[in-house]
Amino acid sequence: MSSRESPAAVLFDMDGTLVDTEDLWWDACVEVAGGLGSPLGEADREALFGLSVEDAALHISGGPGAGAVESLLTDAFTRRLKNGVTMLPGAVALLEALRAAGIPAGLVSASPRPVVDLVLETVGGHRFRLSVAAGDSARNKPAPDPYLAAAARLGVDPAACVAIEDSPTGVASARSAGCAVIVVGTSGAAGGVTAGGVRAGGVTAGGMTAGGVTAVPTLESVDLPLLRRLVSDPGPVTPRT
Q: Which residues are catalytic?
């Protein structure tokens, strides 16, 4: 049993976790791929879910010209973000609760810095002690580097942090960094979560923890007692519903 009473920090993914940008991202990918004469289908939507811009560009281009495709994707996505983004249910309340409790919040995104800064204008950069974007660490998600970089900049142990994610790529990054993880949503985001139970990842959408990952339907199910239990008790945790 750990002696920790609260997380040293709570580290949030951005797209699809704090803000509702998944459709905007998909639309940007469709626009760029269509312009290159490579229309996307529903299988591509699943494949592109949670990918960094670099990896998405590789998926769309097949390899050659990926750097140019990366720029096109960033431009197309940024254009859509400038029309505004919507924070997901429970996001503001959770961030305010963390601030009131004196628990640092960090933003750890696979998106490029211009995208992150644009979203921070909407969600309020004052709510975060720091932000990590693509290029701020040696490797992007799913490598552990972004979460390790965030913890190092905060001067805390990654194992004392809770990461909140929504995609298999992000979950892999946070877990390999040693963080406890909350995965939001029931769309298979943890590489194992389904609306009805478990796939290979071993995480149930009903709220049971497995392998350090706890599934919740929305951020409205995340509160300070849950976050404290995740760092104080290595065993299974059932979040409130």
A: 13, 15
> Is 0.90 surpassed by the pTM of this model?
no
pLDDT in tens, 17-63: 999 998 999 999 999 999 999 899 989 998 898 888 999 999 999 87
CB 172 within 8 A of CB 190: no
Q: What angle do CA 130, 134, 136 make, to 5 degrees?
A: 55
Q: Which residues of 156-192 are buried (b: 16+ CB within 10 A; e: fewer)?
A: bebebbbbbbbbbbbbbbbbbbbbbbbbbbbbbbbbb
Q: What residue has token string 């281009």?
A: 61
Going by C-alpha positions, the residue among 48, 39, 112, 42 that lies closest to residue 81 is: 112
Pick left, alpha or beta for residue 219 (phi over 0 → left; psi -120 to 50 → alpha; otherwise beta): alpha
Q: Please provide the DSSP assignment of 71-92 as one string.
A: HHHHHHHHHHHTT---BPTTHH
